[in-house]
Specification:
Enzyme class: hydrolase
Number of strands: 6
CATH class: Alpha Beta
Distance between the termini: 25 Å
Structural class: alpha/beta
Strand order of the largest sheet: 1-2-3-4-5-6
Oligomer: single chain
Keywords: Hydrolase, Metal-binding, Zinc
CATH topology: Metallo-beta-lactamase, Chain A
Organism: Salmonella enterica subsp. salamae
GO molecular function: hydrolase activity; metal ion binding
EC number: 3.-.-.-
CATH architecture: 4-Layer Sandwich
Number of helices: 3
Largest sheet: 6 strands, mixed
Shape: globular
CATH superfamily: Ribonuclease Z/Hydroxyacylglutathione hydrolase-like
Order of helices and strands: EEEHEHHEE
Radius of gyration: 11 Å
Helix content: 25-40%
Length: 83
């Protein structure tokens, strides 16, 4: 398992990109903002994004989730539920 921390928002909240080294399948955790920066990081990593995971509903953790989910065509999960 690999990961990359992506600082986002004016407060440098951390979005995490995690992926399997063998399959290159990935998930984003708490994409709080700056969707373009996150897209660049995902695309540069050469991974296939499979899902977005939200640890809680604060805006600084979910701000770019909808845009990224639509862009990559992936589901968003929060608190054990699919959105």
């Amino acid at each position: 398992m690999n990961y990359r921390i992506i600082p986002v928002t004016a407060f440098s909240q951390n979005c995490s990109l995690i992926w399997c080294e063998q399959t290159r399948l990935a998930a984003l955790v708490d994409p709080g903002g700056d969707a373009e920066k996150i897209k660049q990081e995902v695309d540069a990593s050469g991974v296939t994004l499979m899902q977005i995971l939200l640890t809680h509903g604060h805006l600084d953790h979910v701000g770019a989730a909808s845009e990224l989910a639509q862009h990559y065509g992936v589901p968003v999960y929060r608190s054990g539920k699919r959105r």
